[in-house]
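Deviation from plan, reported transparently: NAP complex.
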Amino acid sequence: MSTHSAVVTVGPGLPLAVHQVPTPVPTGDQIRVKNRWTASTPLDLHQADGGLLVQPPQILGDGVAGEVVEVGPEVSKLKVGDRVFGFCWRTQAEKAHQEYVVAPEYLFGKVPDGLSMQAAVTVPNNFVTAWHTFTKNFDFELPWPKPQEYVPKEKDVWILIWGGGSSVGQYVLQVLKWYGYTKIITTASMKHHQRLQAYGAAKCFDYRAVDVEQDIMGFLHTQASSGGIGYVLDCIGSAEGSVRPVAQLAKAGTRVAILLPVILKDAAEGVKPEYEMDVEKVADWADGVVVSGVRTHFYLDNKFLAEHLQPEIMPTLLSSGVIEPNDQIIVEGSTLLERAEKALSMLRNKQVSGARLVWRVSDE
Ligand SMILES: NC(=O)c1ccc[n+]([C@@H]2O[C@H](COP(=O)([O-])OP(=O)(O)OC[C@H]3O[C@@H](n4cnc5c(N)ncnc54)[C@H](OP(=O)(O)O)[C@@H]3O)[C@@H](O)[C@H]2O)c1
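Because the crystal trials were delayed, the predicted structure below was used instead.
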């Protein structure tokens, strides 16, 4: 069997390594993709430094953009030469920080004409996260196709997106705006406020302000018929930086979803991060608050989303301009390993703000 290079974590806090791994021949509905661009995300840091949900040696990454080079016998929608992008994570063959990725075609969409692969690769994992969170954790309908004159039933309820400047937050805002949600507030650094308002936030708050919780409550009191906050999505999952203020704002009846893991201690040079997966434990929630953790890895349980989200909804909303990709920071380096290590170091040192780290997988 032929082999190719893959970036693996060999143990928590250890330097990454490049291994030669088998290049499987696609079977059934699988395609083989020559992976051109990938992204490094906080999950890569959680796994490399914290050993979260990994069994080393494990290939990292879950965002792929490249060309189809081989198809299995049951593939019906994609063909050799198509430019595709996708969120793939379940097996070593599907993971993204490697030269070839083999996965079923339903985990990919076609990159819209005119969109670069480096921009496209910022989209899949957190676009899927946005959709999964609101349909699964909050039971929002997000009907597809969207009926003309669609009015969401939660339109009069305030929604707080904590951390709207994050990659997830940016896709969430854009999707909710398109469905007609207008009562959305968000927290982010001031430098991101203008963009987030364009993405649909009615009001942005500086999360670093000492009294940010009071600022938010004060704003809601000025709003006619405000019944408080109905839904809170914590896009950050920092025990101190987001969960604590969110717990102060959530009252009986508020539904809170937190992107897992909850970070108890941040990764840093020489510091092993600490995580908690039980969201009930991480704050003193008021009676009647309904809190849940988000696990996007389960989105395929929804058969409709499994079939339509990446192949159809994601490229359609991108090509029609409803969604724009995250800004990209291109991570340079002369080897695959150098680029992967540098990206991880930038995540560790919190050098990512309102953008996604992307890098070339292929040296060709
Ligand atoms: N469980 C799941 O299904 C799932 C899925 C996707 C993501 N996640 C997790 O969700 C988290 C976010 O992922 P991501 O890819 O969206 O991250 P990201 O884009 O890398 O997040 C960085 C952004 O977060 C902002 N930020 C940091 N601390 C903040 C705080 N206390 N309040 C408000 N904003 C803050 C930063 O803003 P400034 O630079 O302006 O300070 C920066 O723009 C990660 O921990 C990730 O692992 C989980």
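The mean pLDDT is 97. We consider this an acceptable substitute for the interim report.
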